[in-house]
Amino acid sequence: MKTLKIEDLSKNFGTTEVLKKINLDIDEGNFLVLLGPSGCGKSTLLNIIAGLETINEGNVYIDDYNVSKVEPKDRNIAMVFQSYALYPSMNVKENMIFGLKQAKTSKEKIEEQLKKVSSFLKVDELLNRKPSQLSGGQRQRVAIGRALVREPRIFLFDEPLSNLDAKLRVEMRREIKKLHQTLKTTVVYVTHDQTEAMSLGTRIAIMNHGVIQQNDTPEIIYNKPSNTFVADFIGSPSMNLIKGYIKKEAEQLYFVGDDSGNSIKIPINNYSFDKKLELNSKEVYLGIRPEHIYYKKNNESDFEINLKADLSEYIGHEQIITFNYSNQEVLAKFPSTTKIEINKEMNLYFDLTQISLFDKNSQERI
Amino acid sequence: MQDNISRSSYKQLEQKSKYTNLFLRWFLYFVLILFASYFIFPLYVMVVTSLKTMEEIRQGTLLTWPSTLNFESWAIAWGGRGYGAGDTFLRPYFWNSIKMVVPAVFFSTFIGAMTGYVLTKWRFKGDQWVFLFLLFGCFIPFQAILLPMARTLGVLGISNSILGLVVVHTVYGIPFTTLFFRNYYVSVPTELVKAARIDGAGFFKIFFKILLPISAPIIVVTVIWQFTQIWNDFLFGSTFSFGEAAPIQVALNNMVLSSTSVKEYNVDMASAIIAGIPTLIVYVLAGKYFIRGLTSGAVKG
């Protein structure tokens, strides 16, 4: 049984297609993050799961029951919003129990739930305050509390941390993680922040233009991106995508940047291809993350390459150096303690176990 | 040397700007006082004239202070002279106006709030057209609808009645009240409504429990606006009512124009002030909310 299942879901606003045949499911207790740039349809998808938006095509199932035509209040979900959406005229207590009151829960049960949740979230002392008298972090807590008291099957979070300042955001992120570890409730969480997505999610679904690009664990998303969009979207700075093609020489497979002969050949014999393809002279992108380029040899299999450093960006704990590989920029990330000379060639080591290859035409991983 | 020169010239500049500022400040006060007196002057004339006897009015000038404070003309304006036919006085019409204003303000404000709520939080296909047509209502000159409205009231059987005037004022108030409430509710985050829907509140519950409690500023603005409009209205009152059912502005007009013998300026002035007092009271009581509500667009939760 899947806690949440989305089947061939399509949604348009007038002539704009926002979601195109989305298929998605989550097992009990998972933390699914919907990640994507603005306008990719992730918030619409969340609103559809909540029942706040109508569906054009497809179905939504909660615990194998088709809820496509069920009212939001009867879907057994709770939602936390970006603007917190606390009712301004009610105090914290009234805010938190509003839903239970609507559901005609008994007085004792309401008191019990309120007590449990408010001590759990440490908002007991705020119960008589109005939302306008709370700080951003406190408001967020109360908003989460309002969702918690309902004991829902699924928690929906719509960019809950975007309105907080950087420091508070990191704190609240940890709190949400702890919350999930303690309660083990299924969560769907929308964000455009990749750090948030990576640190919180047990699964991440990356969306672009209303299509799910990849839906997997954070590790696989990071290490084996399924196309160039995902490769480019995740990581900071993002993965180097070096244009070039595959060359076969004496039963050995190489990647080269261009025809000139000056381009250094990178051996890709040990790369495990996803698909069986005609590889010789296929146009591809070679993907390697800046953190997988080393300034000294780490593993036996590292490939030594000599490149010229063009630019150095110092960002405190590390530095980002731009190198030139057959007239393309290749970024590498080193600790800021290493001394790098600009406009000089230096020896680098590519970790070939960490590379990805993408078909240039389809942009898909091969 | 260099230093000295610049220092003394700074001193001169400082002196100069001090005088300029002083002059500008006094000039500002002068202009403000001038305008203020320009506005207060007619009121002053009204009040003093109403307190004079006819004798004094004929002999003195407009501005002279009354020799004794004589409230007799106020009593006549309010309660009449006590003889039978032809004696017009304000008291019954004042109550007519109250009976007209209170329900008309209430219903137009309430319906406007509802409409504004629907147009912003329960958007539907073509809602912007509905809003556009409502806006047209703000720009229609009321003279243009007098005849159709008279016919409508006739068909409904409520012409020449307070009820008829309540209906007319409610209908023509809705465009303005809707505009006010729509613009106010647009700045209230829609996520509030979403949260309430998930919490299980329905259309009316969300309106009464969540939006209405935060609408105080805009309610005050709307009530003042509607009260002033309806209380001061003469056109609808004089067209759709006469005799017993007339509101105070119509009665005031009749009183002043129907005097057959001598023009009693003191009674006229007293009547005019009485007819204006309720609006003044509303402004004094709620005026600061009026400014606040008009200027504050966004009320954050």
Summarize the structure in words.
- The complex is a heterodimer of chains A (366) and B (301).
- Chain A has helices at residues 42-50, 92-102, 107-120, 136-148, 166-183, 194-200, 218-223, 228-233; strands at 4-13, 16-26, 31-35, 57-62, 65-66, 77-80, 154-158, 186-191, 203-208, 211-216, 240-249, 252-256, 266-267, 283-288, 293-294, 303-314, 318-325, 328-335, 345-350, 356-359.
- With 366 residues, chain A is an alpha+beta fold.
- Chain A has 2 domains: 4-233, Rossmann fold (3-Layer(aba) Sandwich), CATH 3.40.50.300; 261-359, Nucleic acid-binding proteins (OB fold (Dihydrolipoamide Acetyltransferase, E2P)).
- In chain A, the strands form 4 sheets. A 6-stranded mixed beta sheet of chain A has the order 6-7-8-3-9-10, sandwiched between helices.
- In chain A, helix 2 (92-102) runs parallel beside helix 4 (136-148).
- The longest helix of chain A has 18 residues, at 166-183.
- Chain A is elongated, with a radius of gyration of 25 Å.
- The model of chain A has no long low-confidence stretch (mean pLDDT 91).
- Chain A binds chain B through residues 47, 50-52, 72-73, 77-79, 81-89, 98-99, 102-103, 131-132, 146, 158, and chain B through 189, 191-192, 194-201, 205, 209-210, 213-214, 299-301.
Strand content of chain A: 25-35%
Low-confidence stretches of chain B: 297-301
Summarize the helix and strand pattern of chain B as letters: HHHHHHHHHHHHH
Share of helix of chain A, binned: 10-25%
The helical percent of chain B reads: over 70%
Write a compact overview of the structure shown.
The complex is a heterodimer of chains A (366) and B (301). Chain A is α+β, with helices and mostly antiparallel strands and 366 residues long.
